Amino acid sequence: NIDNWMTSFADNARYYFSGGDSLIGKEAIAAYWKDRRNNMIDKLEFTNDVYTPLKVNRPQKGPDRAGVWLLAWFQTSVTYKNGQSLKFWVHNDFHFDANDKIDQVVQYIDRAPINAALAKKK
Q: How far is residue 49's CA from residue 14's CA, in Å, rounded to a whole number?
């Protein structure tokens, strides 16, 4: 339920993919995931999930930010509308603002196998 999931996001949230592309704003994030879920994905399941909260008191250098983070990784099993199926691991880093809303996500994923599966025909 993407609408329900989006209630966790701040309006100005940013969603960064490990390949360098990004989504800026809650509406853009919702539109992307609704399109992906409704038009590309037939079945989706998450298993073996692990969550680790942490608080960064003083950022080092790089993309880290002070505040509360939730590190999450899980195994994803997906069947695409073209009949192709994959199983892979995803790692997400969620940063929360002062209102406990997600204002930044960094997703680490190898998109090459996903792109190859989407390119295949039934």
A: 23
Per-residue 3-state assignment (H helix, E strand, C coil) for the chain? CHHHHHCCEEEEEEEEECCCCEEECHHHHHHHHHHHHHHCEEEEEEEEEEEEEEEECCCCCCCCCCEEEEEEEEEEEEEECCCCEEEEEEEEEEEECCCCCEEEEEEECCHHHHHHHHHCCC
The pTM of the full predicted model, rounded to 2 decimals, is: 0.87
Q: Which residues have C-beta within 8 Å of that of residue 31, sequence separation ≥ 6?
A: none
Q: How far apart are CA 59 and CA 77, in angstroms?
A: 34
One-letter amino acid of 45 = E
Run means of pLDDT, 10 residues per run, the chain, 122 residues:
95 91 95 93 95 91 82 95 92 96 93 82 65
> Looking at the chain, how many residues does it have?
122
